[in-house]
Specification:
The chain is mainly α. 55% of the residues lie in helices and 3% in strands. The protein is built from 13 helices and 3 strands, in the order H-H-H-H-H-H-H-E-E-E-H-H-H-H-H-H. It has helices at residues 15-26, 31-50, 60-74, 78-97, 123-137, 142-155, 161-166, 196-209, 227-240, 251-263, 268-275, 280-284, 291-298, and strands spanning 172-173, 178-181, 190-193. The chain has a 3-stranded antiparallel β-sheet with strand order 1-2-3. Helix 5 runs antiparallel to helix 6 and helix 6 (142-155) runs antiparallel to helix 8. The chain is globular, with a radius of gyration of 21 Å.
Length: 299
């Protein structure tokens, strides 16, 4: 019955998500951005239905309860939590403008962000992840091979979430072991190398899935994977590998890639090129200078 909750005589609550998606598309947002916005809006709507709340009279207290639950459940730090609040506010603004709610959304304050260096995986944690995934690989299920490939694409190739989702088989050069990233974030195209282990994994996965022309990363039965689903897959891998540290997300794989390159002595200009950064200071924000690094520099 809850999925038939109505906000007025004509519009069902389930129809809101599709209307919201069309609104975002009309605003010119990218496909990946829209997926992120819709993902958070869907979770919020699911909470409203599960809690049997009245959308039109939704209160600030009820919204803050949802945000608090999500912050605790996802172990969100300040900046990630602030981003969540912003995404929910955008959805609430859409609802307000279309007279679906009466709440004054300006009452919902956005937490201040802090200057932080994003989390990356320690080498011990990376070993745990690969140990878990390699054990799963023995089952020879397509999803197990796919998950192992996703981790490699992040940690060993530095691909962004959107780049993984958009990667096609035609973008992979098996002769030269290079991946071509087409017009990534910032409008820059680039090429990144991959090693022999990843090559064998890619070839094995392609053979298993019997696909040569479509997107590489797919869901069960060849279905599309959304940005939100991919993030959930990664978080699930962390947890099943015994890693519960706050602040880790799919982007942590990319940061781990940059950190590993830095520790190998790769110069910052090369790292920036591999990451697809147009500004060196963007790349510098990826680096994590430890006490041991400082000692080694002066002793």
């Amino acid at each position: 019955k809850s999925n038939k909750t109505v906000i007025d005589q004509d519009v069902k609550i389930d129809d809101l998500i599709e209307d919201y998606k069309k609104h975002l598309q009309a605003s010119g947002k990218s496909k990946v951005t829209i997926e992120n916005y819709v993902c958070e809006a869907t979770k919020f709507i699911d909470f409203i239905k599960a809690s049997n709340l009245n959308l039109i009279t939704l209160s600030k207290k009820e919204i803050e309860k949802y945000l608090s639950i999500q912050k605790e459940k996802r172990k969100l730090k300040e900046n990630a939590y602030s981003k969540l609040v912003i995404l929910i506010r955008v959805f609430l603004k859409f609802l307000k403008e279309n007279k679906y709610i009466v709440l004054n959304i300006n009452e919902l304050l956005i937490p201040k962000t802090v200057d932080t260096i994003r989390e990356y995986l320690q080498e011990g944690e990376i070993k745990k992840i690969f140990s878990y995934l390699n054990q799963r690989k023995e089952n020879y299920r397509n999803e197990n091979l796919r998950d192992l490939l996703i981790i490699h694409l992040g940690i060993d190739c530095g691909l962004r979430k959107s780049e993984m989702l958009n990667l096609k088989w035609k973008d992979i050069d098996f002769t030269n072991n290079m991946i071509s990233i087409k017009m990534s974030k910032g409008g820059k195209s680039r090429k990144v190398p991959f090693n022999a282990e990843i090559k064998q994994l890619l070839l094995g996965y392609r053979k298993r899935t019997k696909q040569n022309t479509s997107k590489v990363i797919k869901g069960s039965f060849g279905k599309k994977i959304t940005s939100c689903s991919l993030q959930n897959i990664i978080i699930g891998i962390y947890e099943k590998s015994g890693i519960y540290r706050e602040g880790l997300c799919i982007h942590s794989l990319r940061h781990s890639y940059a950190e590993r390159l830095r520790k190998k002595g790769t110069d910052i200009a090369t790292i920036a090129k591999l990451l697809g950064h147009s500004r060196i200071d963007t790349t510098q924000a990826y680096f994590h200078i430890s006490d041991d690094d400082i000692k080694n520099a002066v002793l």
